[in-house]
Amino acid sequence: MEREALLEYIRPRMPEKRYIHTIGVMETAISLAKKYGEDTKKAEIAAILHDLAKYEDEDAMRAIVRENGLDVRLLPWGSEILHGPIAAYRAEHELGIKDQDILNAMRYHTTGRAGMSRLEQIVYIADMIEPDRKYPGIELLRQTAEGDLQQAMRACIHHSISFLVTAELPIYPLSIECYNDYLGEEL
């Protein structure tokens, strides 16, 4: 599908503020893909569709997990974790997207995982640093993303884990594995 068709597909599935966020993620992902030699079309598709399921009913998302053999570790988690894998499922089964790199970039855009591809890293980072985001430390993350993709990913997963620990929130196991993977580069 082309950009306009994808945007038309997602727009009714989210509030205007999330749609604006999605446009920012798309533009940021395309920019990072150009910078780091990744396929810009794949970055565009994954970025447009990354929050496709963000506002779906959690019980309906859990039913998709159970009925379709998705990772059962998702079941106790809420929309913040469920929406990535469900978006990937919908993109594959409703839109016919078969490229596993695009689907994985969507699937892991919130949690990260060990061994991420460049496209997965780009979408993860773009989701965190798109222009509409505002939180302490974002300017440093944006600067890091301009210099080195691996360092940017490391900084972003560190920021995410630190936020969750400080807020005393549970951390999804793949996020811990992602953090350890990037930390392990120094060991």
Explain the overall architecture.
By secondary structure, the chain is mainly alpha-helical. The protein has one domain (3-183): Hypothetical protein af1432, CATH 1.10.3210.10. The chain is built from ten helices and no strands. It has helices at residues 3-10, 16-35, 40-49, 58-67, 79-95, 100-107, 118-129, 138-147, 149-166, 173-183. Helix 2 (16-35) crosses helix 7 (118-129), helix 3 (40-49) packs across helix 7 (118-129) and helix 6 (100-107) packs parallel to helix 7. The chain is globular, with a radius of gyration of 15 Å. The model has no long low-confidence stretch (mean pLDDT 96).
Query: Biggest sheet: strands, sense, closure?
Result: none
Helix content: 55-70%
Radius of gyration: 15 Å
Give the count of helical stretches.
10
Q: Can you give the mean pLDDT? A: 96
Shape: globular
Order of helices and strands: HHHHHHHHHH
Keywords:
187 residues, mainly alpha, Hypothetical protein af1432
